[in-house]
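Q: What residues go here?
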């Protein structure tokens, strides 16, 4: 089906090239003459388009909904449909990546109290510098508030380094109720087992081959991969620390989170702490259940 804009162009072509009258050209194209003569009265949106591009350029994987929230936070009163139209006309549409296979099977959930520090998740994400040398990032996420508590890039991170970073984080934020991780050698090392026992912190290991049992951190890793690592060329460790630190700050304090009612993780955590409010959907913490506390052959600590 052809829209009015195309039909107007066809009428203009018939009149200019073939010398037809407006009435005759409109009859051929099957469009009303008042539609051809209509002059759009939309308000000027040049400044809004420029601001939309400014917000989208450093956040190339943001869809129009999050950009709409950011504009609303700045006082823009345009509706979502108008923002979506400008978003498409400016060519900002995000290309969808192929969906991953979903995890299936029976799971045993852990009930988590809806408060900050109720449960932390740990995992590594890997990338490489421009020279080809590989590095990894230790991500620590609060499963309730969705805050990224730490994102530590380095070329090598041992179990002792993980324990040291956790101790530093606890001194500034407080002790978590439980920590969840996979069965990587850094997390099952003697350094971590002894640290968990000494700190009296319960540590749960997910079942081998079941990464979605650590779904909150895996989801965060995916967002970091999609919006930062795949979009940035790192020239060294210092450059990586600078870029990752800036992105984490933006994630915690600027990025609207859909599962938090489009509040930022920092705003949600502050509101949760101040009011003692419950989660919008208490069942959402059950979507990323954790397997029995420790896999076969790994000593269970903190009990």
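A:
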């Amino acid at each position: 089906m052809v829209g009015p804009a195309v039909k107007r162009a066809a009428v203009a072509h018939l009149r200019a090239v073939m010398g037809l009258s407006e009435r005759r050209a409109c009859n051929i194209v099957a469009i009303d003459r008042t539609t051809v003569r209509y002059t759009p009265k939309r308000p000027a949106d040049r400044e809004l388009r420029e601001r939309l591009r400014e917000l989208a350029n450093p956040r190339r994987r943001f869809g129009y909904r999050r950009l709409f929230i950011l504009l609303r936070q700045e006082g823009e009163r345009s509706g979502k449909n108008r923002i979506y139209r400008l978003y498409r006309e400016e060519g900002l549409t995000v290309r969808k990546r192929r969906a991953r296979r979903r995890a299936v099977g029976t799971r045993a959930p852990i009930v988590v109290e809806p408060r900050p520090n109720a449960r932390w998740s740990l995992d590594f994400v890997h990338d490489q510098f421009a020279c080809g040398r590989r590095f990894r990032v230790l991500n620590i996420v609060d499963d309730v508030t969705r805050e990224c508590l730490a994102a530590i890039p380095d070329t090598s991170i041992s179990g002792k380094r993980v324990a040291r970073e956790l101790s530093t984080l606890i001194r500034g934020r407080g002790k978590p109720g439980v920590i969840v991780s996979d069965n990587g050698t850094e997390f099952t090392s003697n350094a971590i087992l002894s640290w968990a026992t000494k700190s009296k912190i319960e540590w749960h290991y997910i079942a081998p081959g079941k990464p979605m049992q650590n779904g909150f951190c895996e989801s965060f890793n995916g967002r970091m991969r999609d919006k930062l690592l795949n979009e940035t060329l790192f020239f060294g460790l210092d450059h990586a620390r600078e870029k990752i630190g800036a992105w984490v700050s933006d994630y915690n304090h600027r990025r609207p989170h859909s599962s938090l009612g489009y509040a930022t993780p920092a705003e949600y955590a502050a509101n949760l702490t101040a009011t003692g409010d419950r989660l919008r959907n208490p069942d959402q913490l059950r979507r990323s259940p954790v397997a029995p506390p420790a896999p076969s052959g790994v000593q269970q600590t903190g009990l």
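A: Context that may help when evaluating the design: The first strand starts at residue 120 and ends at 128. The radius of gyration is 26 Å.
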